[in-house]
Amino acid sequence: MLYLLGVVVIALAILISVSLHEAGHMLTAKAFGMKVTRYFVGFGPTIFSFRRGETEYGLKAIPLGGFCKIVGMTPQDDDVEPGDEHRAMWRYPVWKRTIVMSAGSVVHFALAAIAIWLAAMFMGMPNKDIPNPLPAHVKVVDCILPDGAQRECAPGDPASPAKQAGLRDDDKILAVNGVPVADYAALTKTARELPPGQPATIRYERDGVTGELQVTPAAVQRKPLDDPDGPAKTVSVVGVVGPSLPPGVPANVTYGPVEAIPATAGYTKDLAVGTYEAMKRIPEKVPALWEAITGGERDKDTPISVVGASRLGGEALENGVWQMLVLLFISLNFFVGVFNLLPLLPLDGGHIAIAWFERARSWLYGLIGRRDPGRVDYMKLMPVTYVVILVGGAFTLLTATADIINPITLFSR
């Protein structure tokens, strides 16, 4: 039941966000005097509708997004009635059209920012004072799983060498056989290179006091650290996991209403960088998505669709991590806001780019004394638009299929 509730919550949050996106277009267009004839939530057959003034509002049967109809978005539109020519969108100054077309993304950014601000006060934001990389504070496991499987300890599993030797949770490993250990990654690398079955000296720090003990590593099968897809080989392990936060250092920090503002700005900056990096990697992740569909392991770094986001929301709520629903809401809104501003038709950013291209071209022609060439002919751009729609549709289908056949899972189910 919790899983289904999480799925519904994320799906509904996405629907509401997209509906507000279209409301942003509609309200700014109306504020400037443009004529808006339709505003609908969803697509397909109409469930119900009503008219207020010159605009018809309604709900469609397929709850995937929404739309609003602004009269005369391009000079080629034939939806301008006699007497409304002056209200056609394309006749308005470029700055007004820019505001209207960017209003949808602004709504997404506003939703993300408000959610971040509220999260900073009530849920907490990642602690900026956590060292990066983390020192090798560890948790001691009860047993060794020879094959590396993710499961509970079972009778017959070898006991953890670290536990037998006396290591405790939150101990900070300083060195192994005299080799300094700066972080958990260095600890893992050093431990794997130890001779199996031969005692090793581990220097550690516990409650500010340094000590040493002898640990006899166990031999197990693990995949190489630098090649997760490579064949497994025999290595040594000592029976710890990490990295753990230093004792007394919280993972998240909550803020007051005023202090939450700079925290929101900082998180938004990190989100912008992460979104840029994620979008830059999309082309190289397409083969990984295809591999996931055809039987390969799903890369957790591959893009997800609305289906995948909804499933992650269900999984998070089922496992009691409701905070992930908030982070999903924030990330999705920010990503959609950025994506819609890409200078490609039929995205909002494509219309904005054309409007400013027309303005710059008119200015340049005036500067050199030539006649203004007028508006861009959108019909000549339709082949490019169709290519963008085809590629975008294919990518959406690919991610949705991967999310159905081989979804990303963050918890063992």
Automatic annotation (TrEMBL):
One of its GO terms (molecular function) is metalloendopeptidase activity. Pfam families: PDZ_6 (PF17820), Peptidase_M50 (PF02163). The chain crosses the membrane at residues 99-120, 321-342, 384-405. One of its GO terms (biological process) is proteolysis. Coiled coil: none annotated. Gene3D superfamilies: 2.30.42.10. It is a multi-pass membrane protein. Its main location: membrane. It is found in: Membrane. Residues 10-361 form the Peptidase M50 domain. GO terms for cellular component: membrane. Keywords: Hydrolase, Membrane, Metalloprotease, Protease, Transmembrane, Transmembrane helix, Zinc. Residues 156-186 form the PDZ domain. Belongs to the peptidase M50B family. This is RIP metalloprotease RseP. It comes from Micromonospora coxensis.
